[in-house]
Amino acid sequence: xxxxxPTRQHALEVMEAFAPRMGRRYASGRNYDHGxxxxxxxxxxxxxxxxxxxxxxxLTAIAVAHHGLEGAEKFVQEVVWRSYFKGWLERRxxxxxxxxxxxxxxxxxxxxxxxxxxxxDAAENGATGIACFDAWxxxxxxxxxxxxxARMWFASIWIFTLGLPWRIGADFFYRNLLDGDPASNTLxxxxxxxxxxxxKAYEAKxxxxxxxxxxxxxxxxxxxxxxxxxxxxxxxxGLPPTTPVRTITPPDPALPTAFVxxxxxCSPEAFNPMALDIRACATLAASPLRSDRPVAEHVTAFxxxxxxxxxxxxxxxxxxxxxxxxxxxxxxxxxxGAMQIVTAYVPEGPLRDWLRRAEPDLAAAGIMLAEWRxxxxxxxxxxxxxxxxxxxxxxxxxxxxxxCA
Length: 405
Description:
Blueprint: H1 8-18, H2 24-29, H3 46-50, H4 56-71, H5 73-91, H6 93-110, H7 114-124, H8 131-143, H9 148-161, H10 166-176, H11 182-193, H12 206-212, E1 256-261, E2 277-285, H13 297-314, E3 319-322, H14 326-335, E4 340-344, H15 350-364, E5 368-372, H16 375-381, H17 388-392, H18 395-401
Helix pairs in contact: 4-5, 5-11, 5-16, 8-9, 9-11, 10-11, 14-15
């Protein structure tokens, strides 16, 4: 997979090169995990889309242009699925806080449970003796990538065969995946565990792994857990009700502005930020917030590169900020004489948590936090109240309204 450099220009080149394969070839080959260096049936664009170096609209538009909506159906659905998960979490924000707080408890248990800590270390270091699982652990740590099918198998084996806490597994992914996203990662693991679609867990089967890895791996049935039971009994109250998407304060063009670029949207040109009265600009690196455990260097390097590329494309000099003390953001904006901080919408996740901690100091300093939200997100999130099928039915209408089809 060609993930370097983390720039919009490179992302556009990869997208253009893969466009002829976004139709039938993608639909027929997308489930096959051919191993490191051989992932040719999938685009490898996820790290760029996660940061919106290219956008979902651009991806779906080029897929439909090359193959028509019917021909590009599977590819378009995968793009929309990412947006669906993000919207689903926005509509149920307590799911994120429950994951965050539960992970703290799970990691604290490692301090007192030496046996569990040893088993976690073996899983994360690819030393379980399950050949496919160990190979995937090594690929993830070394490359920052795993094929989507492998992610499902890995999570299932982690939870049901190895009997390890699912949140620590999700944290392992989040610390290492170049495309790590709070919504897709958290809800993907919950889906495997049987917490997202209640009562239905994902079982890794030996025949399925053998077939879709092209017989690179041939686990025995005895190697994997069978007849698994969902973990929904660990959340006896079920899913929380949906809530409206958070209301945002739009930017005021008349106010002195401190403009902040984050990895949540590295194509802010769509919002015409130069129309604002910008007194200062900063890139805000947030990858270290992903976990209290060490975040992979390739993750932070990709984020740094994407942020630098965005500032360069805008032609602005940007202060490099890192999400340490929230007060640093407030003091930077005060020094610039700003009355508002403007940024692209920050959804549920560690950066939103961090900004929430900054809000009292911002209010005390008389500085407003203003955000842009894309029409694409609003359109999909409106339907992200239940399973994906509800969103899937709306795809033709959404694409038409977004002029992607």
